[in-house]
Amino acid sequence: MNWILFALIAPFFWTASNFVDKYVLEKYTKGIVDFLFFSSIASWFLFFVLLPFVGMPALNLYAFLPIITGMILVYSYGFYAKALGQGDTSSLVILFNLIPVVTVILAFVFLGQTLSPNELLGLCVVLIGATMISLEKTKNIFIKGLGMILVAIFIWSVMYLIVDYGLTKMSYWDYLLLDSLGSALAAPTFFIIPSMRRRLIGRIKQASMKKYFWVSCNGLLDFFGHMSVKQALALVPSAGLVTTVTQTQSFYTIALGVLLTLLVPKIIKENITIPRLLKKTIGAVIMFTGVYILLV
């Protein structure tokens, strides 16, 4: 399968996962730690499913890259979950277009890469689109959850650079297995702090089958998304191209937000007024154009 298909499939899975996250946060979890723990334990299932087929890779120095990024990914979901709890899912997800911008800036600052005139133009265009989406005609000025989602975006941008480097040192399947192991290992760390441990033990005892079902489904959606994007990164030597295509998630999110609000408003309800949809769509188009100029 062509790399571009994998890069298009990944944001579809992530979009579905974003809305399941919102639903789980509102209906089945009590607090961010609860959400992170149950998100992490789903990775144990994925790890043990993959292990017989992939085999355990040698634990050399490079093997710790995916393990560490897998753990950090789980912790970063804390900022993401806080943002979802505060604001509109589709507006926040559109801001994921900032990931390639932050990635390029980090490469410039820490890796000594130069910025071409096209890249500078792309940065400006993306920031214009992000500003358009972020501003609100309210006393708060910015959309709710903006600060938390920006922290998550920064963390994910760093991880993109690490994943791109890690895939040059090991096979795709080895990286995927160790990444799942890292996400799984995040779960036990929540028991280190006594207050968290007591709360989590209570949540585990009280958890319903519906909670485990939705958490498992969400884990699979997120896993398929990461599997697809890592396959795309393995097939094409340019992380920029893959990153650009995955920004179609903005349009998936707007469409799915409208669809879910119309079909199941008691579960997912977003502002789908014409002015708000136009603002999101125009902002998403501007940001996607900027990412294209920046990376392609």
In short:
The protein is mostly helical and 296 residues long. The chain is built from 13 helices and no strands.
Give an overview of the whole structure.
The chain has 296 residues and is mainly alpha-helical. The protein has 13 helices and no strands. It has helices spanning 3-27, 32-54, 64-86, 89-94, 98-110, 117-134, 146-166, 172-189, 194-206, 209-235, 239-246, 249-263, 274-295. It is globular, with a radius of gyration of 19 Å. Helix 2 (32-54) runs antiparallel to helix 3, helix 2 (32-54) runs antiparallel to helix 8 and helix 2 crosses helix 10. The longest helix is centred in the last third of the chain and has 27 residues, at 209-235.
Topology:
Blueprint: H1 3-27, H2 32-54, H3 64-86, H4 89-94, H5 98-110, H6 117-134, H7 146-166, H8 172-189, H9 194-206, H10 209-235, H11 239-246, H12 249-263, H13 274-295
Please supply descriptive tags for the structure shown above.
78% helix; 0% strand; mainly alpha; single chain; 13 helices; 296 residues
Structure summary, number of beta strands: 0
Helicity, in percent? over 70%
How many individual helices?
Answer: 13
- Element order: H for helix, E for strand: HHHHHHHHHHHHH
Distance from first to last alpha carbon: 21 Å
> Roughly what fraction of the amino acids lie in strands?
under 5%
